Amino acid sequence: MKEPSLDLFPCGCMITPGMGEAGSLTIISANRYFEEVLGIPLQGLLHQPLVTLLTRASGIFFDSFMLPMLLHEGRCDEILLDIRTPSGERVPVIVNTVLEASGEQLIYWSLFKATQRNRLDQELISTRSRLEEKSAMLEELTRRDELTGLLNRRELRRRADLILAQSRRTDVSVAVLMLDIDHFKEINDTRGHAEGDRILEALGCLFRGQGREADIIARVGGEEFVFMASGLNEQEAVQAAQRLHELAGQVPMAGDPLTISIGISLSSGDSGLTYQELFKRADMALYEAKSEGRNRTLVYNSNTRKFDTSS
C-alpha cells in the first residue's frame, strides 16, 4: 500500500528542531498547504529560520510562551499566530504543536488559516464594543428626564446622597434650590399640553448649561425642578436663584414672560441634615414664595427670611 502524502492533509504540516529560539530554528519539512493555501512557496520556506515565517510579535510569543510550554507540557494547542507571506501580507493561523521529547527532539506543527475566524473575532469585538456603548447610553437614559434631558428624581436622590456625604467629610455647605413654574396649570389648561411640554423642554435646555460640573439640576416631576450645589453660602445661593429667574424669562412666550418661584435651604457640613430634611425645607420655602405672590425666592431658616427677586 502506498504511504499517504502529507500534502493531502487539509492543514499546514511542518517540522522544526525542538531546541533553540525562533531565530535559530530551521524549518526541516513542510507540506504543500503552505504553497497552495497560504501562498508561501516551499522553495523559499524549507531550511529557512522559523523567524522568517513568523511576524516579529509571533516570534517573540513563540520564544517567551510556546517554547517554555512545549518543554514543560510537551504540547501547545489552539495558539493564534501571524505568519508573513513573501508579499508582506500578514496571515493569521491557528497552531497546534507537539514536542517529540525522545530522540532528535523535534517540534511537529499543524497550522490552519484563520482569516475567517480572525474576521469573526474582530466582528465580535466590534459588536461587543458597540453593545457596551449602547448599554452605557441606555444607562444614561435611565438617569435622565425624557422631556428636558435633565437628571430625573431617582438620579437626583443618588447624587444628593453623595454630595451630602462629601459635605460631612469636608465640612462644606450645601444649597438646595427647589423651583416651580408659576401658573403652569393655567398654561396647560388654556394653551394645551403641547405648549406646556415646549416650555418645559425650553427651560430644561436653558438650565442644562448652568452651574459647575459637580452641581446637580434635575426635573423632579411636573413643573418642578431642583438645583443642588456644594460650597455655596446664602448670598451665593440667592445669586444662583436670580440667574435661574433670568433664564426662565428667556423662554419664548406669547404674552407675559415665564416666571418661576424658588425655595432655598442650606446645610452646613456639620448640620447633619438628611436628604429628606433638606429638601423638605426647600419645599416649605417654595410654598411660602408662591403664597406671597410668586416670581420670587425665599430662603428657609428659623424665620424663613425672604429675598424678593421679582421684577
Automatic annotation (TrEMBL):
List the CDD domains: GGDEF
What InterPro entries would the database entry show? Answer: Diguanylate_Cyclase (IPR050469), GGDEF_dom (IPR000160), Nucleotide_cyclase (IPR029787), PAS-like_dom_sf (IPR035965), Rev_trsase/Diguanyl_cyclase (IPR043128)
> Which EC numbers does the record give?
2.7.7.65
PANTHER family tied to this protein: DIGUANYLATE CYCLASE DGCM-RELATED, REGULATORY COMPONENTS OF SENSORY TRANSDUCTION SYSTEM
Q: What's the catalysed reaction? A: 2 GTP = 3',3'-c-di-GMP + 2 diphosphate
Mind telling me which PROSITE patterns this protein's record contains?
GGDEF (PS50887)
Cite the Pfam families for this sequence.
Answer: GGDEF
The entry's cellular-component GO terms read: plasma membrane
Q: What is this protein called?
A: diguanylate cyclase
Q: Where on the tree of life does the source sit, at the highest rank?
A: Bacteria
Top class in the EC scheme:
transferase
- The UniProt record lists the GGDEF domain at 172-302
- What biological processes does GO assign it? cell adhesion involved in single-species biofilm formation; negative regulation of bacterial-type flagellum-dependent cell motility
Q: Name one GO molecular function term.
A: diguanylate cyclase activity
**Per its Swiss-Prot or TrEMBL entry, what cofactor is needed?**
Mg(2+)
